[in-house]
Amino acid sequence: MSNDDKPELKECEICKRMFPDLLIVEVPYVGERPRMCPICALEVSNQAHGLNRTEFNGTMANEMLFEARAFLIKEAEDAE
Question: Residue 66's domain spans which residues?
């Protein structure tokens, strides 16, 4: 895969990891709107609501969460 084929990466303001731009979203949180990955968005939501979910309720949010997890797994495998 050439560099031209790789998606533009953006940093999650919470975990500081890089993700494809399409996976970084603004999430209203404590009067701010940090740009974060779906993994951090789920954690922030869990903390705000006192929950311990491993998935979102919505289909689109879950698809983004699964893509983010898959991206990190592939990135780790490529680093080996």
Answer: 3-79
**What is the total count of domains within the chain?**
1
Query: How do residues 38-68 score in pLDDT, each as one tens digit?
Result: 999 999 999 989 999 999 999 999 999 999 9
Our measurement of the distance from residue 3's CA atom to the centroid of its chain's CA atoms, rounded to an integer in Å, reads 22
| Cα→Cα distances 39→3, 23, 42, 68, Å | 25, 10, 5, 7
Helix (H, G, I), strand (E, B) or coil at 12: coil
The secondary element (H helix, E strand) that includes residue 11 is strand 9-11
Q: pTM for the full model?
A: 0.86
* 3-class state of residue 45 by DSSP: helix
Count of beta carbons in the 10 Å neighbourhood of residue 69: 13
